[in-house]
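Input structure tokens:
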């Protein structure tokens, strides 16, 4: 991600945008900080009842169960964000995604070997 283009404040990436559809309107939010985005999603999930298929009212569930439900709801978002970032990095480097991943694995292995040599 080091080659991401850093322009003015008006630029944002697709994984920094979230849209809420309310009746006949769509409200778009751009949240650049990742922790703020996750907090926002947690608040929205809480307002909607704690996640999909709530077995019992949210006030009767313990914190662990609420956390697991929130994580279940956030997993598709996290995968989508990962795929968008991976595609963007591949596009910046003008190479296929599989080549980008293989080069990253190769660089990691080379770095691990170098660290292992230093430890010896």
């Amino acid at each position: 991600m080091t080659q991401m283009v850093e322009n003015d404040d008006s630029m944002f990436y697709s994984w920094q945008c979230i849209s809420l559809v309310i009746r006949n309107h769509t409200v778009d939010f751009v949240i650049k900080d990742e922790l703020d985005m996750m907090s926002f999603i947690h608040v929205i999930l809480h307002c909607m009842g704690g996640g999909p298929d709530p077995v019992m009212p949210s006030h009767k569930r313990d914190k662990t169960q609420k956390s697991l439900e929130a994580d279940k709801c956030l997993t598709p978002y996290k995968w989508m964000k990962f795929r968008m970032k991976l595609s963007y990095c591949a596009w910046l480097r003008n190479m296929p995604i599989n080549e980008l991943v293989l080069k990253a694995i190769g660089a990691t292995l080379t770095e691990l070997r170098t660290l292992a040599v230093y430890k010896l």
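The chain has three helices and two strands. The first strand starts at residue 17 and ends at 22.
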